[in-house]
């Protein structure tokens, strides 16, 4: 791929672009995403490693995955293994940590996406014993009696994703050795979602915070209700399959999940402008300030692009027409660069695994590969593969410290490129 606009590296033009310059160049050349070619486009981020390289190298050497990591590209294989190796370096024994530096402070330890990403990555590559061990510790120590998480700003969507994580682990590793002991905590999570549903009556979306950074802005967010619906459905199915008695009962869980999904879809369709060319989907029922020009032109648009839309997409409740419209809104609204996620005037990929899951489900393989390849090439330091939470446009530099969910994007997504074990 050769493109003069890319070779000059005009950051100001990239910042204002409504479409992804790399994706555009691929389209003009009639080419598919190729990691080797993408790696040659720009300078990779420069920054310090999160951990001593000998520690990571030793963890990589001890890895025994099932299947062996073999995605078809050695650099991607290395990114997967490095990601898995960062788990034990980041955790303190079984105790979760979000990252290092500022992100190593104890106030970040309970952030649910850490355990969600960790269990998904480990179980995807057959590291079932460690996945179950960390999962059991987290549930027994982090879930309160009322079903909420011991954390300062848990979103409703994260509760649904925790229930989904239990179903994923049971499907991949089986329920033995953890489910019976952890079922009470999981059922309390389901109970918390049902209680929140009862607060809005028989119809309507759940009210809650959208994510920790925005915990002062509770509302009826689409991604929250979408994942609450998905989580309740997954927990009901898992409990029935494994003969786990739930407090609410199977019928109530299924009914609440189904009705909440229906209500969410109705609300999404009502919120989206009728003009199919209008890409702005507000992330919640309540009125918000519409971003002007690019989706990332203001704070609410940036959060929608980088987390709220991807989680709505990954919940799986959207029919194909709405799901594809959401992807096109990102692609045509200045929402990405080289497949990576725009946030204001920088890149922030830690929730990218949700977007990748949605792309894969839609069969958008080229967009999936571009985002995955762009992430490993330009959201990680090529020399030591540390993935920072935020980076600048190329030539990239860290804007925020290393965090584990960003490090695990490649491990979670790349497993889809290999046949089942």
Please name the defining characteristics of this protein.
421 residues; mainly alpha; 5-stranded antiparallel beta sheet
In short:
This protein has a domain of 182 residues. It contains 18 helices and five strands.
Structural features, described:
With 421 residues, the protein is mainly alpha-helical. Helix content is 53%, strand content 4%. The chain is built from 18 helices and 5 strands. A hairpin with a 6-residue loop joins strand 4 and strand 5.
Query: Which class do the helix and strand fractions yield?
Result: mainly alpha
Q: Within the largest sheet, what's the order of strands? A: 1-2-3-4-5
Characterize the biggest β-sheet: 5 strands, antiparallel
Counting DSSP E segments of at least 2 residues, the number of strands comes to 5
Task: Estimate the global geometry from the Cα principal axes.
Answer: globular
Percent range for β-strand residues: under 5%
In terms of per-residue confidence, which ranges show pLDDT below 50 for 5 or more consecutive residues?
none
Give the helix level as a range of percent: 40-55%
pLDDT averaged residue by residue: 95
Termini Cα gap: 34 Å
Please tally the helical runs, counting DSSP H or I stretches of 4 or more residues: 18
The value of Rg in angstroms is 21 Å
Order of helices and strands: HHHHHHHHHHHHHHEEEHHEEHH
